[in-house]
């Protein structure tokens, strides 16, 4: 998801806008994209499309494909006791130092959308649910 967002954020400002979409289409060989088509795409978002909004929107498109278990299994590596949450500081360190590293801004966006609880834990089960279903559990 991070790589897809980075590819689409052509101007690297942390948001996907009409110009980014036009540039992405151009990079894929589609040069004559209508303004209305781009506007309709941007209007699908509830606001500016940062990484967190992108994840939520992508999750909404994935409904029915059931990737939730795959995402949960990835988080469970960091939760060997199966508590359903992990220390926010720990996941922040892992996301910023391993594989496709998150930037400080992406971490900030993630924690703004999914704040740790008062004990400093991130409820990754809820995060996975929102990513794959596009809305929070009641």
Q: What does this protein structure show overall?
A:
- With 138 residues, the protein is mainly alpha-helical.
- The chain has two domains: 1-62, EF-hand (Recoverin, domain 1), CATH 1.10.238.10; 68-133, Orthogonal Bundle (Recoverin, domain 1).
- Helices cover 55% and strands 4% of the residues.
- A two-stranded antiparallel ribbon has the order 1-2.
- It is elongated, with a radius of gyration of 16 Å.
- 16% of the residues are buried.
What descriptors fit this protein?
138 residues; mainly alpha; Recoverin, domain 1; 2 domains; two-stranded antiparallel sheet; 8 helices; 55% helix; elongated
Short description:
With about 140 residues, the protein is mostly helical. The chain is built from 8 helices and 2 strands, in the order αααααβααβα.
Biggest pleated sheet? 2 strands, antiparallel
Query: How many domains?
Result: 2
Q: Measure the end-to-end span.
A: 26 Å
Shape, principal axes of CA atoms: elongated
The CATH architecture of the largest domain comes to Orthogonal Bundle
Structural class: mainly alpha
Helix content: 55-70%
Q: Give the ordered list of helices and strands.
A: HHHHHEHHEH
Calculate Rg over CA atoms: 16 Å
Number of helices: 8
Q: Quote the average pLDDT.
A: 83
Strand % is under 5%
Instruction: Please name the fourth-level CATH homologous superfamily of the largest domain.
Output: EF-hand
| Major beta sheet, strand line-up | 1-2
Total E-strand runs: 2
- Contiguous low-pLDDT stretches (5 residues minimum) are none
CATH top level class name of the largest domain: Mainly Alpha
The CATH topology name of the largest domain reads Recoverin, domain 1
Subunit structure: Myosin is a hexamer of 2 heavy chains and 4 light chains.
InterPro entries: EF-hand-dom_pair, EF_Hand_1_Ca_BS, EF_hand_dom, Myosin_RLC
Keywords: Calcium, Metal-binding, Repeat
GO molecular function: calcium ion binding
